[in-house]
Amino acid sequence: MTPVLEAEGLGRRYGRQWALRDCTLALPGGQVIGLVGPNGAGKTTLLSLAVGLLRPTEGEVRVLGRRPRSPGTVAEVGFVAQDKPLYRNLTVAETLRMGAWLNPGWDAPGARDRITRIGLPMDQKVGKLSGGQRSQLALTVALSKRPKLLLLDEPVADLDPIARRDFLRTLMSEVAESGVTVVLSSHLLADVEKTCEFLVLLATSHVQLADDTETLLSQHRMVTGPRADAQSLFSAHTVVQADYAERQATLLVRGRAPINDPMWTVRPVSLEELALAYMSTSLPQEVAA
């Protein structure tokens, strides 16, 4: 199956600063994919390259098997930018009519139904809508293109908890009904953990993780034990993060080999713990016994 988004050595530089570097990915279709990382990690840059708003400095990216700016790709990709760029002086109804005019495959009945369900007044100016209402309208416009791939750049970052919950419910309902593939960029790890089946983690402008979330969680464990014995774990596993107290060490390790030493307590890792650990800039140094 052709990946919905594929990058090979992809990079984008602004002057001397790399916003994204050596990005190689193959994202599967039919899933909700979480794109996480700290501010400045390259999330927005990756999405902007994928929709053709930016051109790569190096490497290439293909979306639905084609270049981002090809006519077929533009028609099949929905995008909600972080600032949700809607025309503030248009009403909700005028925004939908403009969407129909710009998109040949526009789903007018579906757009009206979504607006009715979320309770947006058709005659209300976009500029008078709340943040949550603007987010719902932007999502409606993107979904009404009937895209095969939907890219969302921090769509709930500025929403209160209730508006965020409503937005995610609308999104997941659409995924269930239409099967659209979603790439959801977010720094809200709890939302990613609840909604995403595949995780891409960027840090320091590079891809640190890209895999099925269940696979990633099964590969990592949190272990706690005597600091003096930590050296043995460094030799047998990849230690992603290490925290030390005077006599105790707590380590996030990656590896399939079992840890059978009774001196160590082993537990599963949460997606939030996993993501936060990989957002650090470097792997921990080995500790002296």
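^ that was protein a. below is b, sequence first then the tokens
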Amino acid sequence: MSREIIAILRGIQTHEALDITDALISAGISKIEVPLNSPNPFETIEQMINHAGTDAKIGAGTVLTVADVERLAQIGADMVVSPDCNPAVIKATKAHNMASYPGVLTPTEAFSALRAGADGIKLFPAFKLGLDGFSAINAVLPPQTKAYAVGGVGPSDFAAWHAAGITGFGLGSSIYKPGWTADEVSAKALEVVAAYDAAFGS
């Protein structure tokens, strides 16, 4: 199954990226994001794309400019994730047939993102919005909107967010921290997948 989990590898270094990519894919996580404030992110992302092939959708996070979108398109990235809602970044992303997940926290930002063509919205920081805040926003969103909780949300929260109508999650420190080995990432990823399958149905 294709789980709606995006692994956020903030701080990952190029030399460790392929082993960690393999660990995530083997655990059942096939959406992977390398934030652009990581070391050598474009080189890392390109190597991961070439290594994983069609086994994973790999892209960048913390994408703030159209120039970054253009560079990601050149190396074959699959998705663009941002902490903010920038219509120019969204439109450039879609012009290159990449998936767009901009960050939002309010209904105004959510609808601006969708009007610009976003594939889904990244609710960030989700722990500040909370379940009540998300439920209120979700009540007015178009029914098929894909919404991802990112920031301060972990496996123990999956069931509650699923009950509130969330599509999926972006997970950073609960699945990867700089310095963790591929084996450590694998163990965390398996815990995440088990919690996701329990909440969403395997």
